[in-house]
Structures are given as C-alpha cells and as structure tokens.
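Subject: for your reference before the review

Hello V.,

The reviewers asked for a structural picture of the protein, and I figured it would be easier to keep everything in one thread rather than splitting it across files. Below is the amino acid sequence we used in the manuscript, unchanged from the supplementary table.
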Amino acid sequence: MTTAPDITAFLHAQGLDPHGLDDPDTLLWTTRDANGPIASAALELARPAALLRSVAVRPDRRGHGAGRRLVEDVLAEATAGGIRRVYLFSTDAGSFWQHMGFREVPVPEAAAALAGAPQVRRYLADGSLATEVAWRRDLDAP
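And here is what came back from the structure prediction:
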C-alpha cells in the first residue's frame, strides 16, 4: 500500500512528514469532505504499545473537534485491537494531548517501547529523537 498523494500533500502542508505511513504495521485514518482531507491520524503498531502520529487537522476545521473525535476513534480501535499504551511525540501541542488524557514521559521510555516503529527508527537514525517530547496514554482493557 502506498500513501495516497492527497494525504501526503495534506501532511506536508501541516508540517508533518508522511515517511513510514505505508509500512504494513501502520494504520491510517482520514476524514474527508468535498475539499479533501479534513483530519488524519496514524498508529504504528509495536504491540502491546503503539505510536500515534501524523495527527493533523486542516486549518479551516481546527477548533471544531475534528481532531479530538478522530483521536478518540483511533484510541477506541486501538483498545479493541489489544493495544495497552499509546505514545506520541509532540513538542508544541502538549495542552491538547493533556486534555486527551496523555501525560509527558521520558523520551527513552517511548523509544524503548516503540523500538520497531518506523518513526522511532527514523528519529534515531537522523538524531532528531533528542529534540522530541514524549507523551503516553494507558488504555483500558476492552
């Protein structure tokens, strides 16, 4: 599977890198309207944990709950699929993630739990992991 060109363009426009979204252990969610993607989110599976990434909302739809609803759907599906912890990296949206039930954790914790995740491998390879802020949410068993 390859990432749809409109999703790639959408993520680039939001300042996000779509690298690794076509990995077989990565699940991608997108909501759309007549103008294209509204919001996106992806999970890189590293059972029993996962990395939430590529969460973006089109600027004209921000502040209307599109991102929150999509993240809630992703987390519900992750829980149903046996994921027990979800991590993410975010340096500038901490208050949003706290509101969504995430708490800041040490970056090495996230990197160890997600060692096989494409985004973590890339961050380790290019040295950018040191500049990240890691967040974690523990999920309830179904």
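For the response letter, the relevant points are probably these. The chain has a mean pLDDT of 94. Helices lie at 5-13, 66-80, 94-99, 107-113, 118-126.

Happy to draft the paragraph if you're swamped.

O.
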